[in-house]
Specification:
The structure holds two protein chains of two kinds.
Chain A: H1 3-21, H2 24-44, H3 80-88, H4 90-93, H5 107-122, H6 132-142, H7 145-155, H8 170-179, H9 195-201, H10 233-241, E1 243-245
Helix pairs in contact in A: 1-6
Chain B: E1 13-15, E2 20-22, H1 34-47, H2 51-67, H3 77-90, E3 95-101, E4 104-110, H4 120-134, E5 139-142, E6 148-152, H5 157-165, H6 170-175, E7 177-179
Antiparallel strand pairs in B: 1-2, 3-4, 4-6, 5-6
Classes of the chains: A mainly alpha, B alpha+beta.
């Protein structure tokens, strides 16, 4: 037995011990309420028959809803064939009807329960003489690794650490959290949140501020040519007086 | 450069007891309204004799020359223009500016009252002033429908004036002129 299996076994033992220490009055309602819910859900889904194989949905128990069509506005004498077909075969008429949005999640617990029943059937029968601890250990050890990993993901606490550093920008924060899920203090081996580890998982991102719009042009041409100014007024006047028509 | 600016303080002396107004150099002047001066100038233009206006310009040139720290030909254009513009403002002949179009010097006078249609009086005034100031004969030819005066040799003044009267703008006139060796 490897060290990982030993640790997993210890964790399961502690969980079994904790469940055993809980008062039975607390567990009883939870077990009793689960069965009626499953029974209601099971009753909403009629068993599949050869006549209506596509009616395996919660909406199958509802009366068929006639689809609005131009033929409905016509007198019955003109479209009697269509009406007669709907009356005689209501299941076919209700086939295009999609289940309501509120009733859709009800199918998931049923499916999950059926899967667990199938898994229980595939498992070997438990030894009736074994202690609850041995039964629990046996059940956990016989479970496939993938199933345990899925359960570990579901049981992972989602509370964020209190001292987790926040990135500078909101967009960067959401992106980082999507890529790296938050690690709680309980999931740590030491039970204490390591700040250095948090820095590695959620780095502080600094983004430059947007460049402000300059009021003056970045490049400005002051003069294309050097000014042709004489040093003295006499030189300028002399050149001006030397002008002749050409 | 303390002498780069013209000091107008105490330029005119009003002797109220004797009813006289004198300049800082001692010349006696008479203050006239522009609506009185304009007909006099129109009469001089119609007679073709602007000698009096040119003489007034020569007096202004002398005042400018006396206020300058040295010979006008040896000073920077900025200093000469500053002093000449200050004297013209003191006498109420508008605001003087200087432009350079290629090799030609162009004087700009703004804020003048309407005197004659072709601005020949102001041209005579400027010619007399700068001729005295620079010790050279200078003709300031007005550019039609503008407040600009091109400074040329008196021997080509008639030609330039003909171009201006024919409708040539300043750029066209300047392009028709080329510098020569002899001034």
């Amino acid at each position: 037995m490897s060290a990982g299996q030993v640790e997993r076994l210890q964790a399961l033992l502690s969980r079994v011990q904790a469940n055993r220490d809980k008062p039975r009055a607390v567990r009883a309602p939870a077990q009793t309420t689960a069965a009626p819910v499953a029974a209601v859900l099971r009753a909403a889904v009629p068993p599949p028959t050869a006549a209506a194989p596509m009616a395996a949905s919660p909406m199958a128990a509802h009366p068929p809803v006639r689809e609005p069509s131009p033929a409905a506005a016509l007198p019955r004498g003109e479209s009697g064939g269509v009406v007669e077909e709907r009356v005689n075969i209501p299941d076919r008429v209700s086939l295009p009807q999609r289940p309501a949005t509120a009733a859709r999640p009800a199918t998931q617990p049923v499916a999950r329960e059926s899967m667990s029943q199938d898994a229980a059937r595939s498992r070997p029968a438990r030894d009736r003489t074994a202690t609850p601890l041995e039964m629990a250990v046996e059940g956990e050890l016989n479970r496939p690794t993938a199933e345990m990993a899925v359960e570990g993901e579901l049981n992972r606490p989602t509370a964020e650490p209190a001292a987790a550093p926040r990135p500078a920008s909101r967009a960067t924060t959401s992106a980082t959290e999507r890529l790296m899920p938050a690690v709680s203090a309980a999931s740590s081996d030491s039970g204490q949140y390591d700040a250095a580890e948090a820095d590695l998982e959620m780095p502080l991102t600094l983004e430059p501020q947007p460049v402000i719009e300059p009021q003056r042009p970045i490049a400005q041409v002051v003069s294309k040519h050097a000014p042709q100014l004489d040093a003295t007024f006499g030189a300028m006047l002399k050149r001006s007086l030397s002008l002749r028509p050409h | 450069m303390t002498d780069s600016h013209f000091d107008p303080g105490g330029f005119f002396q009003f002797d109220l007891a004797h009813g006289r107004v004198r300049t800082r150099g001692g010349a006696r002047v008479i203050v006239l309204a522009e609506n009185v001066l304009a007909p006099l100038i129109m009469t001089a233009v119609q007679n073709g004799d602007l000698t009096a206006i040119r003489t007034l310009g020569s007096q202004l040139g002398s005042i400018v020359g006396q206020s300058l720290p040295g010979q006008a030909n040896t000073l920077s254009p900025q200093i000469v223009l500053t002093h000449a513009g200050a004297v013209m403002s003191l006498y109420g002949w508008g605001r003087l500016k200087l432009e350079q179009w290629g090799g030609a010097l162009v004087l700009v006078v703004e804020g003048l009252p309407p005197l004659d249609e072709d601005n020949l009086a102001v041209a005579a005034l400027l010619g007399g002033m700068f001729s005295t100031l620079c010790s050279a004969e200078v003709a300031c030819v007005p550019i039609a429908r503008t407040t600009k005066y091109i400074m040329v040799d008196p021997r080509i003044a008639e030609q330039v004036w003909a171009w201006s009267k024919s409708g040539d703008n300043l750029a066209t006139i300047a392009s028709k002129l080329t510098p020569t060796e002899t001034a």
